[in-house]
Amino acid sequence: MITVLVGPQASGKSTYASDQALKGALIVSDDAVYSMLHGNHYDLWSKDLIPTYKAIEMSIITTAILSGRDVIIDRPNTQKATRQRYVGIARAFDQFCKAVVFKFEKPEVHAMRRWTKDHRGLSLDTWQRACERVIQAYQPVTFDEGFFEIENR
Q1: What is the pLDDT of residues 25-56, one digit of tens each?
Q2: N or C end: fewer C-beta atoms under 10 angstroms in the chain?
Q3: Are 6 and 101 in contact (CB under 8 A)?
């Protein structure tokens, strides 16, 4: 099974993913990929490296599925086009695909939570702008996207 988490920063996605990891799921986290490649310097993210980031994700997802493990996609996934990538992978491997949608609050609430818990060397203002972009980009999750289940948290 592939579970696609949907929600802004500091909405509970990584906490959910961590709980699922304890149950045997493997977590594909964009934060972990960026951290691994850039030595915990999140500000080194580069548009030029998007193919590299996606290749790493794809390798982890396919290997996990072939190993019989559930996969949790831990990233905002607020746009249908992003979610379609994971739904397509699930279909290609005949996997059940579920979306878990987390609560969207005001950008300043998410930004303050992220900055207080783990600011990752970024300013509160930077997190505020990031949260605003993610929330503005949100397209509601629908069954038409190919999900078998949609859970709201």
Answers
A1: 999 998 888 888 888 777 777 889 989 989 99
A2: C
A3: yes
Helix, coil or strand: residue 77: coil
Beta strands in 43-138 (DSSP E): 71-74, 97-101
The tokens of 145 are what? 């996207």
Question: What is the H or E stretch that residue 26 is in?
Answer: strand 26-29
Residue 57: name the closest of 74, 79, 81 by CA. Answer: 74
- pTM (two decimals): 0.88
* Residue 143 dihedral angles phi and psi, to the nearest 5°: -65, -25
Q: What is the number of helices (H) and of strands (E) in the chain?
A: 6, 5
Domains of the chain in sequence order: 2-104+141-152 (3.40.50.300)
